[in-house]
Amino acid sequence: MRLRSFTADTLPDAMHLVRETLGLDAVILSTEELGDELGVKITAGLDDDLDDELDLQAPEELVEAVDDIAEVLDFHQVPAPLANRLMSNASGLTAADNVMALAGALDGAFDFAPLPTAASKRPVMIIGPSGAGKTATAAKLCARVRLAGSEANMITMDAEKAGGMSQAETFAAALEVSLQRADESGQLKDLVANVPAGQLTVIDTPGISPYDEAALQNLRDTAETIGAQTILVMPSGGDCYEQAESALAFRDTGTRYLIMTRLDSSRRYGGLLCAAHAGRFSLMGVGISAQIGAGLAPINPVSLARLLQPAKNTQEHLSLVLGTL
């Protein structure tokens, strides 16, 4: 394989240089952010033994798809290692359009899981940093169950936060769901044990710092005591590497699922992608508005690819994108 390096101001510009110099069969081996406004460096290779019989999409479509993905990832400020993997995933796919090419790339890099329902056999514990929207997410999960014609109940462990109990009470009253309070894991275990079969139990927990090891261990112990499925809630915005470090810390609690919130308050979702990838979380859903009844939507590779297309993320736009699931 013949190797060459290309440097440009942006990732899309560097990708263009690769295609222009090495042609359509170039293989992207690595990308590197040079820092200090020095641009991006791509190392690419050309394998003289590539099999011409591979069933790949037409060359023009392939180049357009990879270049479009590079622009999307650059807009969301996705770091080079993850961007490189996604572009490599897309480079060998047959897709109807650029969005579907990105969807295929995302499908190869992330796992997806359905949101909990009343049929779930385990209680759900919502965890995450302060201000992530945990209480609202807990209420939105209950709302989805109620709208589906089933029963749900909420248990709050976040009653000591200023306004925490009143917020939970407001949500519970609006949804006509039971609300109970648990101050420690023993009390929580008794409450969960008394929930009638066929109901989804959603537990709202206090926000904690991802760097508080004692609090993280307590969360893990509590979840194991009641046999709960833990779901991490993280808001959009913020530094990619900070989000990734936070996600790794919460993964140590045993959680394997992620709900991404506040998508209506940010336009760049690179931090959330970094968090999901670093923690190897299965993506469950996205919070797209403050509305309890319609503010939480499921997510899959196609809808995520549509959400990543640079656009003015108004409520109308987000609802339209997720309404095409």
Description:
The strands form two sheets. Strands 4, 5, 6, 7, 8, 9, 10, 11 and 12 form a nine-stranded mixed sheet that branches. A three-stranded antiparallel sheet has the order 1-3-2. It is built from twelve helices and twelve strands. It is elongated, with a radius of gyration of 22 Å. The chain has helices at 11-22, 59-75, 80-91, 98-109, 134-147, 164-175, 185-193, 213-226, 240-251, 270-279, 301-308, 315-322; strands spanning 2-8, 27-33, 40-46, 111-112, 124-127, 151-156, 178-181, 199-204, 229-235, 257-261, 282-287, 296-298. It is of the alpha/beta class and 325 residues long. 41% of the residues are buried. It folds into two domains: 2-109, no CATH class; 112-322, P-loop containing nucleotide triphosphate hydrolases (Rossmann fold), CATH 3.40.50.300. The longest helix has 17 residues, at 59-75. It is 43% helix and 20% strand. Strand 11 (282-287) and strand 12 form a beta hairpin.
Low-confidence stretches: 49-58
Most strands sheet: 9 strands, mixed
Strand content: 15-25%
| SS summary, helix count | 12
Mean pLDDT: 85
Estimate percent helicity.
40-55%
CATH domain topology of the largest domain: Rossmann fold
Radius of gyration: 22 Å
Number of domains: 2
Element order, helices and strands?
A: EHEEHHHEEHEHEHEHEHEHEEHH
Distance between the termini: 42 Å
Give the class-level CATH name of the largest domain: Alpha Beta
| Secondary-structure content class | alpha/beta
**CATH architectural type of the largest domain:** 3-Layer(aba) Sandwich
Throw out a few tags for this protein.
alpha/beta; elongated; 325 residues; 2 domains; single chain; 43% helix; nine-stranded mixed β-sheet; three-stranded antiparallel β-sheet
